[in-house]
Amino acid sequence: MANALKHIELAIRRRVTGLLSGSREAMRVTEPADVLHLPDNARILLLRQDRIGDVLVSIPVMRALRNRLPFATIDMVLSPNNLAVRHAVAAYTDDIHVYRKSLSDVVGLLKALRRKRYDLVIDLMDNPSTTSSMLVRWSGARMALGIEKANSGVYTHVVPLADRSSVHIVERLARLLMPFGIDPSTEQLDLEYEVTDEERRKAMSILGLHDDGHIRLGVNISGSDISRMYGEEAMTEVLTTIRHRHPGVDPYIFAAPPHKDMQMRIVESTGAVAVPIVPSFHEYACLLSLMDAIVTPDTSSVHLAAAWKTPSVVLFMHDDPGLMPWYPYMSPCRPLEAQQGSISDIPREHVISAIDDMLRDFSILRS
C-alpha cells in the first residue's frame, strides 16, 4: 500500500513539474564562456531549498561565484529543512529567503523575490524539482540557469547533466560555473565549514577534553530514516571490538534527539562517551570538528568530514546504480555500501575492518 501511494505521489509530482516546466528553448552552454554578461553589481538568486547536505556540496559553486563577482548581490532560498546551515553560506550570501509550503508563505516569498528584481536565478538542483520550477518561473528574474533535465523549459541557459552514476555531485554542480566563463576543471572545489578557535575551545569545554594523546573517534548513530541507521546491537559489537583492539581510541557517540535512549544504551554497553545533544547544527558541527576520525551513515556529517579532510568510514544505502553516492569529496574515506534492505545489512566484520584500516592509517600519519 505504501509503495502504491508513493508511485501515485511521484506521478502527481511529475505532472505538476511538467505543467510548470515551460517551453522555452534554453541556450545550452557546453564550455566555459561568459554568455550571461552580468554587470559587476548583478543581483543573483540561488535556489537550494532541500537538505543540509545539499547546501554544503553547493558551497564550492557559491565561493567561485563570489570570487568572480565580488560586488554582486547574491541571495539564497533555503527551507526549514536546511536553514540551520545558513552559517556555512554567510561568507558568500547577502540575504536568505525561506521557502515554506503554506500558500500564504509561498505568495509572500514570491512577492519578496519579485521586489528584488534579480538579474539571474540559479537552480542548484540536478534533478527536476516542482518547487524550483515554480520559483524560477515566478521569481521575475531576467535570466535563469540550471542543469539540463526534465524541467529545462523554465531556464534561459542550461549546462549538460554529467553522468550521475560516475561524476560526483560537487563536480556536476560545478558545471553551472561555465556560463560565467569559469572553467570548473581549474577551480578549487573542496568543501568548507568554518569553526573558529573560540568555538573549538567552547566545544572542548563541553566535552571536557584534554590532550591525552588518544584518538577521538566520532560515531554518529543517527540517520535520516531507519534504513540509513546501523543497528544498535551491531554498532555495540563493532565499538566493543574496536575498543578492545585499539585501547588508545576513545569513541564519542553523537545522536539526534529521537535517538538519545539508543545513544545511552550504546555508551553503557561499550564505555564510550555520550556527546551532549545540542540545539543547533552549528554547535553539533563544532563538537564534531574535534574528532580525529568519524564513522557515520550517509548524512550531512559526511560533508563536514570532507570539509575538514577528517578520515571517515561512511555507511551508504546504494540502491540506485544510476546514482553515485555522495562520498566525502576529496577526503580520505572508506565507504561501505548496502545495495538493498538497509545499511544494517552491511556485515559487522566489514565495518570493523574499515575502522581498523582507518585507525591504522591515521596512527601512521600522526606518528
Notes on the structure:
This protein has 2 domains: 169 residues, Glycogen Phosphorylase B (Rossmann fold, 3-Layer(aba) Sandwich); 170 residues, Rossmann fold (3-Layer(aba) Sandwich), CATH 3.40.50.2000. 38% of the residues lie in helices and 16% in strands. The protein is built from 12 helices and 13 strands. The strands form 2 sheets. Strands 1-7-6-5-2-3-4 form a 7-stranded parallel β-sheet, covered by helices on one side. Strands 10-9-8-11-12-13 form a 6-stranded parallel β-sheet, sandwiched between helices. Helix 9 links the parallel strand 9 and strand 10. Helix 1 packs parallel to helix 5, helix 2 crosses helix 11 and helix 8 packs parallel to helix 12.
CATH level 1 name of the largest domain: Alpha Beta
Q: Count of DSSP E strands?
A: 13
Tally of contiguous helical segments: 12
Approximately how much beta-strand content do the residues carry?
15-25%
| Cα gyration radius (Å) | 22 Å
Q: State the end-to-end CA separation.
A: 56 Å
Structural class: alpha/beta
According to CATH, the homologous superfamily of the largest domain is Glycogen Phosphorylase B
